[in-house]
Write a structure and sequence with these properties.
The complex is a heterodimer of chains A (540) and B (109). Helices cover 67% and strands 0% of the residues of chain A. By secondary structure, chain A is mostly helical. The longest helix of chain A is centred in the N-terminal third of the chain and has 37 residues. Classes of the chains: A mainly alpha (540), B mainly alpha (109). The structure holds protoporphyrin IX containing FE and copper (II) ion.
């Protein structure tokens, strides 16, 4: 830990340069837009979380303790839609990406600052449509909107919810575009591609998926709307369509989309692991290219969601083999992070605890993905709690852990304040324990045959379900603690100084919080990323 | 992207070609070519799309990187089509199941 020599609160920075609601709602400063996103994704996280709490309370008893079965269906749909499209997909890219991409490349803003603000408004409009669908009575299609349920049987709110997702999709396309152009065009002198922080490689790969995949989701939802309103036969066999076509189109986007959620977290972990082991990353180019490889291969595996849905077994074979391929670049990353720890001088500050949690939990989620990608085992495991456990290990244990790790790492930069480290480590621990208690039993439940999306279950599953619900309440506490101390720190936290972790990277060379234009003069980069342990690194 | 100035004449020529191709599509729709119906319609549509991308969207005068972007979009479309067809085209390879009750599989209870 370096000193807190500079008192940042005295200078003019992006937070106090202007005051008033207007200065926020009309800002084009990427750092302020990042905070707008931070507020809104947190809001959606709390709503999605509330739905999860109700579901876990309900499942304490085999007959269901709380909700009508129809309400239960609406709860898991709302939970999935909000958490995937309104929390996880925008979380790291729109909050940390927005804040950090320009700072890490040494620029004053993103390439298209107004487009950036527009992205936030588009996101909010999409969110309002979806919230309307919830208030108007909810939808029961699940986050996957499968046909024919969504086209023929479900109520009219499906259209509002789907429209919300459709609109929000454009927000992520625009954000992705902004990042790609910025990384190509606005790198500081000396900042070659292979000197970029790995977070940027990850964000770049994520942006590619956003740009290439999201339009397909938009078209698919549009086709659902066409069929519902004008009875054009696309998915309905009675009109000459094919319901499985929907699954192809949906998963063509949604499998890559799971990598939209995890890749940015992987980028964050690369930053954290190097900083807190005071070492260069092991195998920089492998980690960098594995991000790109994941982005490309992720588009080739979507059929593994359709092994038992009527897809031809021959296509199943191909998709199964390709799914195994996507595990390779994921594993490369895990091994390289571990190798980076080796003989490093590792310290266990809060961000590092989250990063270590990520590595373990992501590995478990990824490996169980391989069980599911095997044709034979998937017949047993498909649509059971095993699948639920698989993707929560990755999305909550992985993506969310990375998000929190990143938030703890860059919070001092964003706000200029330190949070209480003891509480932060404590909450990381609570989250880790609560998480495993919630989701490990779900692997066993699924293996034993408990289907997902059911409001009731046989008596013999009660013990494991109660364990899971107990874990969920611990997890909820774990998430609320950071909410409290982060808010507390804004007012009462001690000043952070420009570089409280002694970290490398351009973003640590400006005051915290940074001035509106980020850098007083254009920085010049003369060394590799993560030049930790160099003799008194000389950064210009 | 240094703005490339394109002669107005080029734009009008391309526009006229697009209109012409639209007329052609309409005309071809009145002739029954059997399975070729859809092929011809899509071919004409692809020509029109290429004209729009090359001239109206200036891809013709853009940097190499922009060409890569254009090709990538097509490549990704090809992935979508190829792997989706890998399902539809191979479905007939699996013999259809027999109707209920006529199968020779015995279930012992
Ligand atoms: C090693 C790479 C991975 C493999 C091989 C893999 C494999 C699979 C398979 C085969 C399924 C379908 C199971 C079934 O429905 O029967 C599945 C479901 C799922 N996976 Fe993964 N997965 C991997 C990584 C990920 C990642 C990184 C995420 C998220 C960040 C993720 C999120 C999901 C989700 C959300 C579902 C369930 C979708 C639904 O039906 O609602 N997976 N995975
Ligand atoms: Cu998948």
């Amino acid at each position: 830990m370096s000193t807190t020599a500079v008192a940042p609160t005295t200078g003019v920075n992006y937070l106090n340069a202007q005051y008033g609601i207007r200065s926020w709602l009309l800002t084009t400063d990427h750092k302020r837009i990042a905070l707008l996103y931070l507020g809104s994704v947190t809001f959606f996280f709390l709503i999605g979380g509330a739905a999860a709490v109700l579901m876990r309370l309900h499942l304490i008893e085999p007959q269901g303790a709380l909700l009508e079965p129809a309400t239960y269906n609406k709860m898991f749909s709302m939970h999935g839609i909000i958490m995937v499209f309104f929390f996880l997909i925008p979380s790291i890219p729109a909050v940390m990406g927005n804040f950090l991409v320009p700072m890490m490349v040494g620029a004053r803003d993103l390439a298209f600052p107004r487009l950036n603000l527009l992205s936030w408004y588009v996101y909010i409009v999409g969110g309002l449509f979806t919230l309307y669908a919830v208030v108007a009575g909810g939808v029961d299609t699940g986050w996957t909107f499968y046909t024919p349920l969504s086209t023929t049987y479900a109520n009219g709110n499906v259209m509002a919810a789907a429209l919300g997702v459709f609109i929000t999709g454009f927000s992520s396309i625009l954000t992705g575009l902004n990042f790609v152009v910025t990384i190509h065009k606005m790198r500081a002198p000396g900042l070659t591609w292979f000197r970029l922080p790995l977070f940027l490689w990850a964000i770049y790969a994520t942006s590619i998926i956003m740009i290439l995949g999201t339009p397909v989701l938009a078209i698919t939802l549009l086709l659902v709307a066409l069929e519902r309103t004008f009875h054009v036969g696309i998915f309905d066999p009675a009109l000459g369509g094919d319901p499985i076509l929907f699954q192809h189109l949906f998963w063509f986007y949604s499998h890559p989309a799971v990598y939209i959620m995890i890749l940015p977290s992987m980028g964050v972990v690369s930053e954290l692991v190097t900083c807190f082991s005071r070492k260069r990353i092991f195998g920089y180019s492998f980690v960098a290219f594995s991000s790109v490889a994941i982005a490309v291969i992720s588009f080739l595996v979507w059929g593994h969601h359709m092994f038992v849905s009527g897809q031809s077994v021959y296509a199943g074979l191909v998709f199964s083999a390709l799914s195994f391929a996507v595990a390779i670049p994921s594993a490369i990353k895990v091994f390289n992070w571990t190798a980076t720890l080796y003989k490093g001088s590792v310290s266990y500050q809060a961000p590092m605890l989250y990063a270590l949690g990520f590595i373990g939990l992501f590995t478990m989620g990824g490996l169980t993905g391989l069980f599911l990608a095997s044709l034979a085992t998937d017949i047993h495991l498909h649509d059971t709690y095993f699948v639920i456990a698989h993707f929560h290990y990755i999305m909550v244990g992985g993506a969310l852990m990375g998000y929190l790790g990143g938030l703890h790492f860059w919070w001092p930069k964003m706000t200029g304040r330190l949070y209480p480290d003891g509480w932060a480590r404590f909450s990381a621990l609570v989250i880790f324990i609560g998480f495993n208690l919630t989701f490990f039993p779900q692997y066993i439940l699924g293996y034993l045959g408990m289907p997902r999306r059911y409001a009731v279950y046989p008596e013999e599953f009660q013990v494991l379900n109660v364990m899971s619900s107990a874990g969920a309440s611990i997890l909820a506490v774990g998430y609320l603690i950071p909410l409290v101390y982060f808010i507390w720190s804004i007012r009462y936290g001690p000043p952070a100084g420009p570089n409280p972790w002694g970290a490398k990277g351009l973003e640590w060379e400006t005051p915290s919080p940074p001035p509106t234009e980020n850098f007083e003069e254009v920085p010049v980069v003369e060394e590799e990323a993560y030049a930790y342990g160099e003799k008194e690194a000389h950064v210009v | 992207m240094a703005a490339h100035v394109v002669a107005k004449k080029t734009y009008f020529t391309v526009f006229a070609t697009l209109i012409g191709l639209t007329a052609l599509t309409t005309y071809v729709a009145t002739i029954d070519l059997g399975p070729l119906n859809i092929v011809v319609a899509l071919l004409i549509a692809m020509c029109k799309a290429s004209l729009v991308v090359l001239f109206f969207m200036h891809l013709r005068w853009s940097s190499r990187l922009m060409h890569v972007v254009g090709v990538a979009a097509l490549f990704w479309l090809a992935i979508l089509l190829a792997l989706t067809l890998s399902d539809y085209r191979t479905r007939p390879w699996t013999p259809a199941g027999k109707p209920w009750g006529t199968s020779n599989i015995q279930f012992n209870r």
